[in-house]
Amino acid sequence: MTAAAPGLRVRDITVRFAGLVALDSVDLTVEPGSIHALIGPNGAGKSTCFNVLSGIHRPEHGSVRLDGTELTSLAPHRIAALGMARTFQNIVMTSGTVADNLLLGRHGHSRAGFAATALRLPHAVREQRAQLERAREIAELTGLGTHFRTPVDLLPYGDRKRVELARALCLEPRMLLLDEPVAGMNAAERARTAGTIGELRTRFGLTVVLVEHDMGLVMRLADEVTVLDFGRRIAGGTPAQVRQDPEVRRAYLGAPSPQESA
Amino acid sequence: MSDRWVSGRQASGRRVSGRAALRRVGPARAAGAAAAVLLCAFPFYLDAFWLQVGLFSMAAAIGAIGLNLLSGTSGQLSLGHAFFLAVGAYGYVWLAGEPGPGLPPAVAMVLAVCLSGLAGGLFSPIAGRVRGVYLGVATLALVFLGQHVMVNAEGVTGGFNGRSVPPLEIGGFTFAETDPALVVLGVPFGAEERLWYLGLVLLAAVWFSARNLLRGRPGRALSALRDSEVAAAAMGVPVARYRSAAFVVSSMYAGLAGVLIALAFRGIVPDYFGLALSIDYLAMIVIGGLGSVGGATAGAVFVTALPLVMGRYADQLPLVAAPGATGHAIGPTEAARYLYGAAIILVLLYVPGGLGGLFRRRVRPPTPPVRQPKEQTP
Ligand SMILES: Nc1ncnc2c1ncn2[C@@H]1O[C@H](COP(=O)(O)OP(=O)(O)OP(=O)(O)O)[C@@H](O)[C@H]1O
Ligand SMILES: [Mg+2]
């Protein structure tokens, strides 16, 4: 988490689903160590863009480079290993406790295979103990310390969203993709998650790409904003610039205005 | 269940006192030890029939634990478990027997398990391509393939009539009747008594390894696959590799179960390893509650012992005919199938955790989630 933060260069990405153009020659540049917001009305292609970045969708053409490494031909787990972690718009959680989920995030940082684990070989036991410590630290960092051993099914919605964030952090990523991290949260929970995201950047130099409909939060947190509409990039710049942009205003007219929660 | 390796290692400041930890772990440990002693004592009190029932149950439990790892934990439906059991059983018989290389039986046993794992590994590229019900259908093909090979490859399998099973020998000790009969504490130790202990040791080893797996890094990756392959991949789990690893490991357990079944039967025929057997194993893990080792064992005992016991007491049961009798009454095997069919429905409707879940709830009811008062946010 200490090395120079990477830059993300997305060039000319196109994704098509059975005729529907979800992303249309999209460019996106994320500076190392910045918080970059990706906004747009529903169905604009924001989640699809994340799916391309994390290797879940392969684009028709275009290139995604993280620190110079081309990602579009890599499997998702390889991209994760390069330091790209993400959360999902709809919480995707493994059954089990918070600890189980966070330890899943530690997968790439541990080695114990089937044989060593089955036989409880000393190095596997040691490793599991160390990973558990690390997971607990990350739980504390994200305010989940007291819920560490709670089954995730029993957690309220806001806490489960935070488990997803913590699980992504367990990868110790260089770049973090957050898909609507505060959706469905109340004001206090939003403020708290926003605080955590800011802290991640300042303390660990993490690069964050954020998809969010809460404009207040976007304006407060983001250094830079990219706006998508119907799969096309229609604007980009600082939050203030984007707010003034006529294209952006037009895109949001009719759609449930994100401005209202600002 | 999945938390023993972290128990007592609570967050600093909330360290659980030793006594509290003991109170939590104590009863389960004590019950386990008592069960172990009891199981070891059985051959001194039970007759051959009950030992057979136990032996088949243990073998089934090993197989069910394997299937549970594949279908219950990693979420890959398999109707082909009977095939991997057959590979283990026939593999052992051929490797240790005549015709065949006639290897020392212990070596043949290990190789048969590996062979079964290899079969699982060879199948896994297919498993990597199809999901869900389609995977179920693809694995079904394995059963028919297996039947075909078992009946037609007479040189290896003995064809329709099968083969007799060479007894296991480990370091000069034979797991069969010997001529100067072995008598322990006044009890003659025949094949059943000896195999009983073999079964216990193997089952214990399988429990140990499977529970470690489920609680460790591989188990977490496998259950992540079941819950969402996309999320698992994004967390760094190589999906294809873990899907096939689940097949290999599950097949190895199935192979071991196959060897034990062969030893218990002392003769194997293709008929036994049919689709019905695959379905029996699915029934075991569903009744036992998907995902847990204890549940798979409980389900295996239930599904295996029920028809045998019903057959034994058929004359005392209403509506059930003695085995082989003609008439309108149904046979014990059939009756048992109806019963466990009903059990599956009951489990699905009322006990989502299966037998394993029922037991877990009974044993440790006071484990409320750590309900800390929610911290106030500014
Ligand atoms: N797997 C898929 N198959 C077919 N169409 C898809 C798929 N995923 C997304 N789409 C379509 O692509 C378009 C963009 O979807 P996407 O989820 O990226 O939007 P979004 O910007 O994240 O919207 P929201 O704010 O509602 O989350 C939508 O029209 C959606 O229906
Ligand atoms: Mg979305």
Secondary structure layout plus pairing:
The complex is a heterodimer of chains A (262) and B (378).
Chain A: E1 8-17, E2 20-30, E3 35-39, H1 46-53, E4 61-66, E5 69-70, H2 76-81, E6 84-86, H3 98-105, H4 114-118, H5 122-141, H6 157-169, E7 175-179, H7 187-204, E8 207-211, H8 215-221, E9 224-229, E10 232-237, H9 239-244, H10 246-252
Parallel strand pairs in A: 3-8, 3-9, 6-7, 7-8
Antiparallel strand pairs in A: 1-2, 1-4, 4-5, 9-10
Chain B: H1 18-41, H2 48-73, H3 81-96, H4 105-127, H5 132-152, H6 154-157, E1 163-164, E2 169-170, E3 173-174, E4 182-184, E5 187-189, H7 191-215, H8 217-227, H9 229-234, H10 239-265, E6 267-268, H11 275-288, H12 293-312, H13 332-350, H14 354-363
Adenosine-5'-triphosphate (ATP) binds at residues 17, 20, 22, 40, 42-48, 89 of chain A.
Protein name (chain A): ABC transporter ATP-binding protein
Domain ABC transporter (chain A): 8-255
Pfam family, one (chain A): ABC_tran
Q: What does this entry look like structurally?
A:
The complex is a heterodimer of chains A (262) and B (378). Chain A has 262 residues and is α/β, with parallel strands linked by helices. Chain A has helices spanning 46-53, 76-81, 98-105, 114-118, 122-141, 157-169, 187-204, 215-221, 239-244, 246-252; strands at 8-17, 20-30, 35-39, 61-66, 69-70, 84-86, 175-179, 207-211, 224-229, 232-237. In chain A, the strands form two sheets. Chain A has a six-stranded mixed sheet, with helices on both faces. Chain B is 65% helix and 4% strand. Chain B contains 14 helices and six strands. In chain B, the strands form three sheets. In chain B, strands 1-6 form a two-stranded antiparallel ribbon. The model of chain B is unreliable at 1-18 and 361-378 (pLDDT under 50). The longest helix of chain B has 27 residues, at 239-265. In chain B, helix 8 packs across helix 10 (239-265). Chain B is mainly α and 378 residues long. Chain B starts with 17 loop residues before the first helix and ends in a 15-residue tail after the last helix. Chain B has one domain (4-376): ABC transporter involved in vitamin B12 uptake, BtuC (Orthogonal Bundle). Chains A and B meet through helix 2, helix 3, helix 4, helix 5 and helix 7 of A and helix 7, helix 8, helix 9 and helix 10 of B. Bound molecules: adenosine-5'-triphosphate and magnesium ion (MG). Magnesium ion (MG) binds at residues 46-47, 89, 179 of chain A. Chain A: Keywords: ATP-binding, Nucleotide-binding, Transport. Chain A: InterPro entries: AAA+_ATPase (IPR003593), ABC_AA/LPS_Transport (IPR051120), ABC_transporter-like_ATP-bd (IPR003439), BCA_ABC_TP_C (IPR032823), P-loop_NTPase (IPR027417).
